[in-house]
User: Which sequence fits this backbone?
């Protein structure tokens, strides 16, 4: 039995949970401390913003094209259609991201309700 297995046997999942919480809040705390020293107009901040938006875009793209779980049961054409409707809504009405996300969620829920009523 190695050190990891013995610690899992002694402390179980609580040790892992504690480690994950400490690791997460360490970086968040460091970010709070350094936030006042970073200019929003600096090249580093612009680069971080670009990387953040790229990651969010890539994850969204992956959810649309390669979904897992219940979302995989929704036809791809409907997933793409919902995204296009939300993008048009957000750009035409300048409503922001949160309203677009709510609209997308409502459209997906409506599709689920439609399927449940259709099967009965």
Assistant:
């Amino acid at each position: 039995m190695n050190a990891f297995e013995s610690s899992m046997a002694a402390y179980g999942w609580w040790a892992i949970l504690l480690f994950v919480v400490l690791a997460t809040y360490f970086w968040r705390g460091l970010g709070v401390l350094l936030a006042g020293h970073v200019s929003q107009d600096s090249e580093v901040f612009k680069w971080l913003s670009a990387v953040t938006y790229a990651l969010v875009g890539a994850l969204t793209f992956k959810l649309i094209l390669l979904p897992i779980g219940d979302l995989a049961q929704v036809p791809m054409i409907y997933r793409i259609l919902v995204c296009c409707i939300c993008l048009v809504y957000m750009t035409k009405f300048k409503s922001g991201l949160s309203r677009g996300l709510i609209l997308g969620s409502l459209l997906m829920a409506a599709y689920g309700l439609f399927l449940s009523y259709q099967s009965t």
